Every structure is written in C-alpha cells, then in structure tokens.
Amino acid sequence: MNRQQQLQMANIIAQQTLLAEQLTTTQFVEQFELQAHSSRQYILSYQTEQQSIGRLSEAPTLPQCPSLSRFPIWLDQYDEIRLVSGCAQPLGSGTLIVAVDDESLYELKAQFISASAIALCLAILLGLITGLIFSVRVLKRINGFNQVALQVEAGHLSARVAISEQNDEYDHMASHINTMLSQLQHSFETIAGITDAIAHDLRTPLSHLRQQIESEILDKQLENLPTEQLESMLQKLDEILFTFSSMLELTRLQQQREDNSQNFTNVNLQQVIIDAVDLIEPITENKHQFIALQLPSPLFIQGDATLLFRAVYNLLENASKYAGDNAQIEVRLTPNGFTIKDNGPGICDSEKEKVFQRLYRIEKSRGVAGFGLGLTLVKAIIQLHNGTIELLDNNPGLTVQITFAN
Amino acid sequence: MRILVIEDNLTTRQYLQKALKEQGYEIDLAENGQDGLFLALEGDYQLILLDRMLPKLDGLTVLTTLRNAGKQTPVLILSALDSVSERVKGLREGSDDYLIKPFALSELLVRIEILIQRKGSNSDKQTNVLQVADLKMELLSRKVFRGKNEVILQPKEFKLLRYLMEHSGQVVSRSLLFEAVWDYQFDPQTNVIDVHMARLRKKVEFDGLPSLLETVRGVGYRMVEQG
C-alpha cells in the first residue's frame, strides 16, 4: 500500500462525500453503482441497512478511514481469494467502504513460489556441482585402487595404493589394502623361495645320482650286460630334473618381469613361428594334423628369440597333443601378435584361468605326458614381453590369442 | 689330448676326472678360478671345462682374461645357471659351448669330441661338396643325391643332414642337432628330434639301401660309411 493509493482513496472518499451531499439518494446510488463497477483498482461498496451497493456482497467490519485494515474477499473473476486493504466511512444513511486490492498475498505467493523455485534450482545446482566434484575425486581415488588391482593381477605384487594427506576413509582403506598386499607379497615370495630352494637344493644330489647311474650304464655296456632298468631310471630322473629346472626357470622369468634388464633384441615373430612350425611338423604329420599358416608379413618385436620360440613351440605342441588326430591347426600373425587355433575339444570356461597355474592339469589330460608347467611358462614368457595371452573358444576348439602391447 | 677341468665341487670334479680318463684324455684339475686361470695361461690344453661359479675368480672373468691374453683354447662352460640369458652371456664372452648342470655324461663327451675336432681340423674345410659313401650333398645348388637319385629335402632337413655329414663318424647328440639346425639355445626335452631323424632317414635310405644314419642309444646319432 503506497502513498499514491492512500491519496487516491482519500480522494474517492472526499468525492463520494461531496456527491452524497449534492445528489439525492437515488441519484447517488445510481452513480455509485456505475463508479463501483467501473473502478478497477478500487473496490467500492455502499452499505445501508436495507441494501448493499457496489462490489461487496456484505460489509466487513472495518475501522474508520483513514486507518486501514486488511480483509479477504473472494474474486469471482479470478476465482481466488485476495487480501484487500480498506476502511469504512459513514456517509449519509449508510457506510462507504473503500478498499484497494494491494495484491500483497498474491505477490507474496508469487514471491514465495519464485523464491522457492530459485532456492530449489540453487540447491539442485549446488548438489550437482558438489556431487560432481565429490564423485570425480572419489572416482579418481577408486581408479587408483583399480589401477593397483590391475597391476597386482598382472603379477606386479610390489604395486601399492597411493595414500593422500587427508587421512579419510579412503586412506584407511588404502593403507589396509597396502598392508594386505605387503603380506601377500611376502607370503608369495616365501612360498616361491621355498619351492625354489627345494628344487635348487635337490638338484645337486640328483645330479650326482644321475652321474652314478650313467657311470653304471657305461660300465655295464662295456661288459655287454642289459641296462634297460637303469635307463628307465635315468629317464624318470631326467623328468624330475627337467621339472625342477622348469620351475626354477619359471620363477626367474616371473621375477625378471620386475626389472626389464634383459638382452632383448629385434626379433621377427614371423621367422620364430616358421621355425617352430618346422620343428613340430613331423609330429603333426604323423597324427595327420594339418597346420595352416597365415603369416603375410614380418612382425618385429623387442624380445628374446629363444624364449619366444619356446612359447610358440609349446602352444603348437599343446594344440597337437590335445586337438586329436586329423585336427586342423591355424597359426595367424595379427597386427600386434598372433593366434593359434585348433578344432579339438577346446577348454571349458571354468578351466580357462586354471590351466595357467603351476602344475595344474585338466582331469581328462592326465593321461598325456607333461608336467603342467608348459602354459605357465608360456604365460610368463609372454608377460615378460609385455604381452597378454587369452584363451577363447574357436567353436569347436581353442583359440590362443597373444597380443603384445607395443 | 690334455683337458683342464676348473670346477670347485669335489664330487663333480672326481666324476669328470674318472669319466674323461676312461675316454683316454689326460686331465689337469683346478678347484678355483685363480689356479684355473694360471694353468690355462701356462699350460697347453686342447680343451678347458670351466665352471661358472668359482671361488676367488668367477668363471666368466677367467674366460675373458684368457681371451684377452690371446689364448684361443676351446672352452666349454659348465653351469647350473640355466637361464637362457646367462647362457648367451657365456657364449658371447667367447666360450665355444655351454652345458647346463646336470648334464648327461654322453652329452658332455659328444660336445668335447666336437670341440676338439673343430679346433684341431683348423676350422671347416672350404668345400662345396660333402660326401659320405654314396650320399652326396652339393652345398651351392643345395642338392642331395643318393647314388644317382636326387633326394628332395626340406630346408631344415637339409641343414640336419649337412651337420651330420660334416661330423660324419662322430656321435652327435639330439640337443647339438637342435642347436645347429634351429639356432635356438634350449633343449626341447621331447622326442621331436627323433621324429625329424626318422623322416630324414626315410628320405635318405630308400629302396633298402644301406643305412648311413646310426642311432647311438641314449646319446644321439652318427653318420657312418657302412651301416
């Protein structure tokens, strides 16, 4: 309610008082009705005891003008309740009521709604921004955890989660994980150390045993005595020694991963594959197996030729061993590695990870010669060359996919 | 034929001494690197058997010192360090061969024989034709004939036969054959070389012709004039 409205109201009252004095009652009522219905901003009403003229259906109790008081009215045209400010002025035989719709409630409501809307928007925005910042930070840290987990998976047991200065729950989790990893690494090294120590320490007496058996065989051969028993003993001993050597070699390869300080040279994988196929060929020929080669162009990687040769040969040997007679084997160079496929029985999903474990053998392959170190050795060699090995289904058969990082 | 054995382990030293004496070699022994190097520089040996891990002076140091002093005596390294890179290191430093412990005595004897022969015959004779009985190999045209019939060989079979013919009369072991033909240094540990030899035999010994490739049980193969 501003000053202008107050003046206006006083004007209206003065005007109507003047008219009431000058006109007859009938004339006054007539003009008042016109005035009341034409006035948009002001609500005028003239209440006598018999009738109520103007825009109010009944008279509220109002103070004497010019003091104002607020009362609610129902507006048909807007179909809503509004608060108006008005006052009563005795006029002739009735009361003149002047009220102005100051829309305060409406404004208040509108203001309230817009204020709420703005508050809501701000809250959402604030929530989004803080959420974003928070989630980015959290994600970053979670990613840190994931990175470490991946490294550990890849065999880098020395990987640790970074700990920030904040000393929050994530740091607690990180330090717990790090402690766990340290213990794991320690246990792992201890176990590896024990098996290797056993393998290493037993090799010397076994070598001497081997020497003795061999001397014995030579002596008997000179006297033309049968040596079959001694020879089969020697063969078994050689198998044991070979397993020990392989185990020691495996550990060495797995440890070498930590420091890539080997004498790597530029190796042509194409040539390595051709050599390995040349070596296995008579064996596959005897089993009526066919090897298809897809080696369109040389592929050079930094590596150790002998180790890579062993890996390829080992995989070919496996394909030949397990895919059965008349199998089709395919060796294919890819842009960053190679695949070896066969159409044999394949390996079921539950076994795919396990076959890489030391000394693990699939139940049905127990009859086939081997020690369960071949694939472990292959994997160690591939990882030493920053590569990955995956076993996939060839439907039917197995696909071994080797991919080198560079 | 004098051989110097530099080996710190008593059991192995005695075993080598006994085995080599039986083969008719004369043996000198050294139990550490320092003594070994002294003997190697002073004495006149056809071959030196050298252990990698030695007290006082490590085997590789003995080898490099020897080579730097201009001694070209063939050296065969014996070592339990069986990783491939170690092996390569040994060969690079000027050893002529490398055997991993535990080795088969037969393997050692075969390799000693080959080393002494190779150095003794003053490197390979410059020749374009190899001949054993009625088997002839022309190195330039890469053709092989048994009598009048040409024998068609795959590249690796050709190399295999060439190595056997070059060392005809000598026993060669499976691992020697593998290293010579494939040029990778490890022991495939399977009978794969036997399978290759069987295939080569079939090609060379057709129509009931006399056998030229003899199997030496437990050791390897030998090319002979008369089967």
Structure description:
The complex is a heterodimer of chains A (406) and B (227). Chain A has 406 residues and is α+β, with helices and mostly antiparallel strands. Helix content of chain A is 54%, strand content 18%. Chain A has nine helices and twelve strands. Chain A starts with a helix and ends with a strand. The mean pLDDT of chain A is 83. Chain B starts with a strand and ends with a strand. In chain B, β7 and β8 form a beta hairpin. Chain B is α/β, with parallel strands linked by helices. Chain B is elongated. Chain B contains eight helices and twelve strands. Chain B folds into two domains: 119 residues, Response regulator (Rossmann fold, 3-Layer(aba) Sandwich), CATH 3.40.50; 95 residues, Orthogonal Bundle (Arc Repressor Mutant, subunit A), CATH 1.10.10. In chain B, α2 runs parallel beside α3 and α6 packs across α7. Chain B: GO terms for molecular function: phosphorelay response regulator activity; transcription cis-regulatory region binding. Chain B: This is Response regulator receiver:Transcriptional regulatory protein. Chain B: Keywords: DNA-binding, Phosphoprotein, Transcription, Transcription regulation, Two-component regulatory system. Chain B: It holds the Pfam family Response_reg. Chain B: InterPro entries: CheY-like_superfamily, OmpR/PhoB-type_DNA-bd, Sig_transdc_resp-reg_receiver, WalR-like, WH-like_DNA-bd_sf.
